[in-house]
Each structure stands twice: as structure tokens, then as C-alpha cells.
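Input:
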Amino acid sequence: MGAPLLPVAEARRLIVEDLASVAPETVKLEEALGRVLRADAVAQVSHPPADVSAMDGYALCFESLKGIPQTLTVSGESAAGHPYRNIVRPGEAVRIFTGAYVPPGADTIVIQENTIASESGVTINEHPRLGQHIRPAGQDFRKGDVVLTSPRLLTARDVALLAAMNLPHVPVSRRPIVGVLSTGDEVVLPGDPIADGQIVSANGPGLCAFVTAHGGEPLHLGVVKDDPKALLRIAEQVAHLDLLVTSGGVSVGDHDVVKAALSSAGFKAGFHKVAMRPGKPLLYGRLHNLPVLGLPGNPVSAMVCATLFLSSALARLQGLPGDGPRTMSAQLGTDLKANDSRADFIRATLQHGNGLPVATPFPVQDSGMVATLARADALIVREPQASAAKAGDTVSIILLN
Ligand code: AMP
Ligand code: MG
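Output:
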């Protein structure tokens, strides 16, 4: 009997509490997508900068319109980028276009569809509302407003907003540098010659891609044999990285050398086993200053553990809380048996339903099957000891991508 298995949330908490955020750096806005904002963003301009027209039509003084229809003199034009500078007086109208400044004196816009232009001016055919179709200065935000707060993972929509705030550069977390090392005598890199008994490393490229997708910069360290000295040599060479992720060799088999190798050099384990499936052997700790996350070798386990824990580690390193992938509700597509003492993460596809999406598990959940993981839309989350569930029951899912 070993130590009791750690609950998933507890394991995540230990990782997140152990990690601190990397330093910020300033990047061009064009490079800010997917980065974490490290200071509150303050608008350098108001948006819109002045009262502007939301429509193509005529700007006029509301009080001009005593009766409808009524003809007004057209005294000029205000186009986007070409404001009309004179004062608009009662009895006058100014031709105006979307985005153009509303000229001084005017307080109402009538859309062109409700007017008739003629030699003598413009005839207004609607009873407007005072102030209609005008976007007031600063309606969106004002100069000096804190519009986005830190920390925040920046989306393309955020980039558009920051641009509108006239911020060409933003402070973001630098990309954490994460070493990815596969272990195993049998493991070769994709494209290398494959001898009898060898398999191709899914984890090295897969975990590197995962790191990139979560804002980090992967350093692919290749494959090391199940040889404690070789493993330790590499770990010591990368002591300056923000995180080392290994795959394989963390179970309790004769060839599972990761923990023993690191421990011989002073590795302090935070935990070693988590109450989950796929997964269970999952090692986290520090080799002096270097945080090390040891994932199981099985590619499905490795990628599911990355989804649950490496994502949080990367988030935390970038200054976010790292409280794990978001879950949402779905309707179960098939019956499920009662669960045992380990949380279960079941690969499933999602279909539209009447209301909640329907999550249907792949019939075979063998943790050696990487193809079903790649094709899955979601992981159904089954808590430890969850009772049997019927098709149609509501379950919690983690969306993949
Ligand atoms: P281990 O965790 O080292 O006991 O490995 C568990 C299983 O995953 C074994 O079948 C290994 O051959 C396989 N495995 C280990 N590392 C990798 C890898 N990088 N890519 C694909 N499969 C792997
Ligand atoms: Mg192995």
C-alpha cells in the first residue's frame, strides 16, 4: 500500500502554489495575441474622440423642425476624416456620413432614406428624436479609463480594443520556456529509423505543441534512455528553464527511473500520484530551482495530464490564477457505470442537442488510443465515486480546443 492518491484539484493547487510568474516584457500589439497582460491598460484617447454620426444622412438642429415635411438649406458636408467646422444654425442642415464629426450646433441626425435632396436644399420627411444617431464622445471609453485589467489572457478582440485605445505596445508576460524531454529505451523521434521493439514518440512533439498553444516556448530536448545518469545530466543542463516536463518513467516499474534519478541530485517531490484515469503516476517537484512535471509515458495519459495540469502551470507562470480548464454542462449520450475512487476523464464527441450539447463517449477508452484523443471534442469529467449515469443525464465536460 502506498500513500493515498491525491485528488486532481489538490494536485493542481500544489503546482500552482509552487510556481511564480515570470517577468513581463513589452511587445508590439501585433504580437500580443495569447499573451497575458501584465499591467492595467489605460486608454490614451477617448472613443469615439468626439460626437460622431452613426449613419449617413443630415445633421441638423432639432429645433429647426417645426412641421414635417420641412426643407432646410444645405450649408456643407462633414465626412469621416473631414469635419465641417462652422456652426450649424436653425434652418440649416449639413450632409454627414458615418463616422464623421457632428458639426457644432447640430444635435440630431436624420438618415438619408428619410430625406429628399433638391436644388433648394434637403426636405426632411421624419419626426426625429432629439440626439438620434449620434455616438457621443467617449461612449465606448474615455481617455484615462482603465479599460482592461491585468492579468488577462489577450484575445484578438482585446487586441482590437487595445489598438482603439491607442496602445501600440503592451506589457505581457514573457513566454515561459519549457523543456520537453521524453524518456524510454524504446522511444525514437518521428522520422528516425525504428528498430525492433521501438515506438515513435508522440509525447515530445505533442507536448511541445501544447506548450506553444498555452503561451509557452517549448524547448524539445528529444529522448533520453531509461538511464538515471543520462537523465540527470540533461536535467542539470536545463536548470535555468522555467519548467521541465518529462514523459514516461514515472510509474513504479523497474525501468521507471525519473524520480530516483532526480532524487539522487536533491529533487524534492511535491506529490507523485493522483487519483485520476488516465494518469495516476504524475510527479511534480523541484530539482533545486527547476520545477519538474513528470507526466506518464502513455500518450493519452500524457496529453490528458497536460490538459489538467500543464495548462495550469503555464497559466500560473504567466501570471494567471491557473485554476484549471473550464468545465461546462452537457447531456450524456450513453449510459455510464458507477465510478471508482479515481476521477475519470472520458474522451467523447459532442453533437448538438435540444438544449445542452450531447457528449457521447468513444466506446473503447483504452488509454493507448491516441487517435480517439485527437478526434475527441471533450472530456467527460466523472468525479471519484460518481454513481451510474443514464443517457440524457447532465454531466460536466472539459472542452478540448
Ligand atoms: P512509461 O510511463 O514509461 O511506463 O510508459 C508507458 C507507455 O507509454 C509505454 O507503453 C511506453 O512505450 C509509452 N511511451 C512512453 N513514452 C512515450 C512517448 N514519448 N511517446 C509515445 N509513447 C510513449
Ligand atoms: Mg518508460
